[in-house]
Amino acid sequence: MQTTHAIHEDDRLNSVLQQDQVLVTSLKSEDRRRKRKRLTLGLLMLIFGAGMGLLFTQSGHASPGEDLAAEGWELWKERRIVEAEEKFAEAVKIAPESTSAWNGLGWARLNQGKSSSALDAFEKCLEIEPSVGAALNGAGQALLSLRKYDEAKTYLLKCAPLAPASWYGLARVSLLQGDFDEAVKWSQKVVNVDPQNTVAAKILAAAKNQKIPDDLQRLIEPPARRSVEALKGWQFINSGRATEAKAHFQKLLEKTPNDFDAMCGLAFSLLNLGNVEEAKPYFEKCIAEKKNNLGAINGLARCLKIEGKTEEAIKLWKDMDETVGHINAGTAGLAYTYLEQGEFKLAIPYFERLVAAAPDRKEFQLRLNAAEIGLKNAK
């Protein structure tokens, strides 16, 4: 997992697996809708005969743009987000009416912290087809990350009847706006279908008490937007260009020594270059400034594991996993570490949660299979 930069580095993206779950839920709804549409077309073919069947068959061939969009989604499944964005961007040029390509472009951008440009892609998708649930949810998530709560809620409410994926976002935004009745409504729905979502449970309790604890506020409130310069450095990291990212963040810190994003970015740049001894103090300083910053906590845990202090790393990852309440980098850290240690019985529940949250990630399923085989052989 240490090579999947977007999951580990950016605290904006630390909940990327949760976003995967949100997206998968939305896409499943879209798939069901499309299947109903295909069934309707099939009935029409039976009614009107072979002539219409030929028409549908001819129009059913995938266009080059659709092929590119499909390649983009395959890259998405492999967490190659930057490459996926490039593929989707190419697809929309060739097939500007492809909702799949625009939707994919939106999600690829959103998972890199590019909320504004992600919103542009989602809105373009919805101009073509207003009922695309995944795009409605994506637009809502993008606006939520930009702290445009009223606009976010408009999109999320449109998505809610189509896909439960938007319920958690509605719970968050309602609580942040002080709309406690709505927060109760939506967080209760989330808890009903996902009893292990501890953040939703905390939102529900806070809404019922009509008071938001400071730690919950920090947990659900979108982080302040990064400067253009800091974002550029993170884009280097997400593209696997750690050396360029290091140089960029060092220059930025010379200008603004207390820039948290630059400090955290430099720490991850150093870690990805193997300079654990240099990276660790930066992570510790980041955590001292923002104790609930999951990206920095995960970075420190990775440093500790490399240093051989695995139990200390496990403790940090357990705190992350239990505090956040949904799948995150801490969950993955525990799963892979227990697997490496041969603690198959401990690894399996974490991999099961990862597979459930991101069923298209073949890596998780392969590792789950390995843990199950290991446990069986150990008996």
* Unreliable sequence segments: 1-22, 28-60
The major β-sheet equals: none
Based on DSSP secondary structure assignment, what is the total number of beta strands? 0
Category by helix and strand content: mainly alpha
Radius of gyration based on Cα positions: 22 Å
Strand content: under 5%
Shape: globular
How do the helices and strands follow one another from N- to C-terminus? Answer: HHHHHHHHHHHHHHHHHHHHHH
The share of residues in helices is over 70%
How many angstroms does the end-to-end distance come to? 28 Å
Q: In DSSP terms, counting alpha (H) and pi (I) runs of 4 or more, how many helices?
A: 22
What's the mean pLDDT score? 83
In short:
The longest helix is centred in the first third of the chain and has 33 residues, at 16-48. The model is unreliable at 1-22 and 28-60 (pLDDT under 50).
